[in-house]
């Protein structure tokens, strides 16, 4: 993968992924959506949220028929000290619903290709060292409910109108219900500590 040996932090995160079991077509002997220690095959057992691939989840699929292949939906790599630009190869997971890489040391700009992730519900890139503007292509993220970019002092410019509303409380008596994918009571777009407006 493009970041495996970028630095010790990336190597530490990626060394826990059994990519050595995957062929060039992307088929892996250790399924990222199977429970730990389970091999691929028609009878693999699916356990929600537990895989051999640390930080990778295949959520919302517990009721699927076993004959239907499971799909990676979440990349969750916060607080790992990860550096450099956001890996574009993560964008190959086109069914992803959550991309969470907050509190790292990521640099560079926000990839415009993220706008192609039509199933994305939440993106958390807060507390990194990102810069530039929010790409116009992010307007295509119609299902986005939470966009956390706070704590990236190098981000500037305007927040596109199509982005989720600014932070609001959910779950209280007068507020809207909280989405099922998060336990946070504050949802929406968070741009505190940036130069976005």
From TrEMBL:
Chief location of this protein within or outside the cell: cytoplasm
Subcellular localization(s) per the UniProt record: Cytoplasm, Cytoskeleton, Cilium axoneme
A Pfam entry, by short name: LRR_1
Superkingdom of origin organism: Eukaryota
SUPFAM superfamilies hit by this protein: L domain-like (SSF52058)
Gene3D superfamilies: Ribonuclease Inhibitor (3.80.10.10)
InterPro entries in alphabetical order: At_inactive_RLKs (IPR050994), Leu-rich_rpt (IPR001611), LRR_dom_sf (IPR032675)
Any single Gene Ontology cellular-component annotation: axoneme
PANTHER family linked to this entry: OS05G0588300 PROTEIN, RECEPTOR PROTEIN KINASE-LIKE PROTEIN ZAR1
Protein name, entry field: Leucine-rich repeat-containing N-terminal plant-type domain-containing protein
Source organism of this protein record: Volvox carteri f. nagariensis
Lineage per the UniProt record: Eukaryota, Viridiplantae, Chlorophyta, core chlorophytes, Chlorophyceae
């Amino acid at each position: 993968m493009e970041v495996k040996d970028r630095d010790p932090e990336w190597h530490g995160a990626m060394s826990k992924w059994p990519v050595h079991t995957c062929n060039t077509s992307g088929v892996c002997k250790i399924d990222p959506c199977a429970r730990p220690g389970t091999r691929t095959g028609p009878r693999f057992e699916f356990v929600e949220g537990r895989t051999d691939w640390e930080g990778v989840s295949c959520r919302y699929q517990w009721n699927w028929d076993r004959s239907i292949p499971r799909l990676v939906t979440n990349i969750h790599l916060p607080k790992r000290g990860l550096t450099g630009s956001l890996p574009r190869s993560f964008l190959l997971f086109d069914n992803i619903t959550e991309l969470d890489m907050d509190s790292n040391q990521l640099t560079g700009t926000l990839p415009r290709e993220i706008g192609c992730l039509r199933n994305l519900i939440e993106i958390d890139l807060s507390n990194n060292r990102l810069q530039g503007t929010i790409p116009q292509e992010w307007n295509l993220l119609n299902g986005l409910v939470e966009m956390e970019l706070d704590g990236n002092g190098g981000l500037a410019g305007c927040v596109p109108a199509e982005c989720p509303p600014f932070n609001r409380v959910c779950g209280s008596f007068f507020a809207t219900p909280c989405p099922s994918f998060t336990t946070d009571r504050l949802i929406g777009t968070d741009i505190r500590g940036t130069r976005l407006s």
